[in-house]
Amino acid sequence: MTFFENLEPLLRAFWYIALPVSLFFLLQTIMTFAGFGGADVETDIETEGHDIGDAPFELFTLRNLINFLLGFSWSGISFYNSIENKTVLIFVATIVGAVFVGLFFFIIKQMMKLNENNSFSLYKAIDKTATVYLSIPEKKSGKGKIQISINGSFHELEALTENDRIETGAVVSVTKIENNILIVEKI
Length: 187
Hints:
This protein is of the alpha+beta class. The chain is built from four helices and seven strands, in the order ααββααβββββ.
């Protein structure tokens, strides 16, 4: 404790913030990786019927406060001897704290992309354009094939047309689905 007594008041304040926040952050991280503190555990405050714990991009949450204070306090300690003007030091520490919160938002956004359902469904093809791969006979008299891009990947699918024959290489639009076969028309 004599270490803290010999420090200037601002530096002492940074240390008093940094140590408990770092401990809390460490515990929070361990609990998250151990399976606690996920979506089922609410650690954030509820306000007027709006559950902040369900919205990962809310600004005022306990997790964001911890992230901000972590960046604020440790940058204040790190730059204390480098930046002589204490107002500028507090401003820089505040900016670093805000960057920590922004970084958290970015990481959560990237993790949410991993959770998206990108499974293939024929119904995602409706109203999309495609290229005829194997010619499609007229008036549903036979099946052809089209190549279509859905969710960034190409698929080769069977297709019928209700109109005239569509030759290979033609651009078509998917209008509907019947018996798991795409119905297309030439554009």
